[in-house]
């Protein structure tokens, strides 16, 4: 049974006049009569008593009317819910972030954007670099927080919002902790604790170390997450070469960070796909970041 036929039945049941109901429904009386007859056939009982002078609800019509109204109310509620869901999806912005986004202005930028555009729903997905790269390549996502070397050109759109560098993190009682700057050559023989294996920042550090040591790599004790790196440094297991930002994650009473030479600099910001169109909400977000957060 088509929902429009139920709607026609309700209109006719309220005015009890085929001519008036047809006008309200913007249809002919003959088509309205055919639809009512079709409903009666499907339901197996008459809905109206018709005479040459009047139209009244049959006992079954009176019984069926509340159910018909419930059906239409439910249909209307479903239509409203579907539109709301569609609007939300239209305004949905999904962005991948790679570990500790609070340190790279990502959280702050998203919170500021949400305050200005409260109707947009921003969904952050924290993952590792490899998974984030895969999601972008497979077109599951168009926006991603990322970083790159200072003068690197990325194969996508990129809005830099900040810059930083790698530092040495070591116990305060370590002999090198009193220096204002540590040469990477000073780290020969020191077990090193590096960021996660097979990440861009890890490769940047390894490439610089190899360049400084004629291709020879130092002893690497551990490659992993920032929390584990800090814990191993505290235990005196080695020196960590890591993003400057992670020193903010911890109590500094027993560890410190020291600048290194040569510098390993990087920029971080918003990456976005350029091989396919962005949604209106995504484009609005990119424009907002460019106008309000882009590194001068």
Write a concise synopsis of the structure shown.
Helix content is 42%, strand content 24%. The chain has helices at residues 3-15, 18-25, 29-43, 59-90, 106-116, 129-137, 200-212, 226-234, 280-292, and strands spanning 48-50, 55-57, 92-97, 121-126, 143-149, 157-171, 181-183, 192-194, 220-223, 239-243, 255-261, 265-272. Strand 1 and strand 2 form a beta hairpin.
How would you characterize this protein structure?
This protein has nine helices and twelve strands. It is α/β, with parallel strands linked by helices and 296 residues long. The protein folds into three domains: 3-85, Winged helix-like DNA-binding domain superfamily/Winged helix DNA-binding domain (Arc Repressor Mutant, subunit A, Orthogonal Bundle), CATH 1.10.10; 92-161 and 268-292, 3-Layer(aba) Sandwich (D-Maltodextrin-Binding Protein, domain 2); 163-265, 3-Layer(aba) Sandwich (D-Maltodextrin-Binding Protein, domain 2). Strands 3, 4, 5, 6, 7, 8, 9, 10, 11 and 12 form a ten-stranded mixed sheet that branches. The longest helix is centred in the first third of the chain and has 32 residues, at 59-90. The two termini are 64 Å apart.
């Amino acid at each position: 049974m088509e929902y429009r036929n139920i709607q026609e039945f309700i209109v006719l049941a309220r005015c009890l006049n085929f001519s008036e109901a047809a006008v309200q429904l913007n249809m002919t009386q003959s088509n309205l009569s055919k639809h009512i007859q079709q409903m009666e056939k499907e339901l197996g009982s008459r809905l109206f008593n018709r005479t040459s002078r009047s139209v009244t609800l049959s006992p079954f019509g009176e019984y069926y009317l509340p159910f018909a109204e419930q059906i239409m109310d439910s249909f209307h509620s479903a239509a409203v819910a579907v539109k709301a869901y569609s609007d939300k999806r239209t305004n949905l912005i999904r962005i991948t972030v790679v570990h500790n986004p609070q340190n790279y202005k990502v959280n702050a930028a998203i919170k500021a954007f949400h305050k200005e555009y409260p109707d947009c729903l921003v969904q952050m997905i924290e993952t590792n670099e490899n998974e984030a790269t895969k999601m972008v390549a497979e077109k599951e996502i168009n926006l991603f927080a990322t970083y790159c070397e200072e003068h690197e050109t990325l194969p996508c759109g990129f809005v830099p919002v900040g810059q930083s560098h790698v530092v040495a993190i070591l116990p305060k009682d370590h002999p090198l902790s009193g220096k204002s700057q540590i040469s990477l050559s000073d780290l020969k023989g020191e077990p090193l604790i590096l960021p996660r294996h097979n990440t861009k920042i890890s490769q940047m550090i390894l490439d610089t170390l190899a360049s400084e040591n004629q291709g020879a790599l130092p002893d690497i004790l551990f490659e992993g997450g920032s929390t584990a790196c800090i814990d191993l440094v505290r235990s005196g297991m080695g020196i960590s070469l890591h993003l400057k930002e992670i020193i903010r994650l911890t109590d500094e009473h027993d560890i410190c960070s020291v600048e290194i030479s040569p510098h390993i600099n990087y920029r971080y910001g918003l990456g976005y796909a350029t091989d396919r169109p962005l949604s209106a909400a995504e484009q609005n977000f990119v424009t907002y970041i460019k106008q309000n957060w882009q590194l001068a």
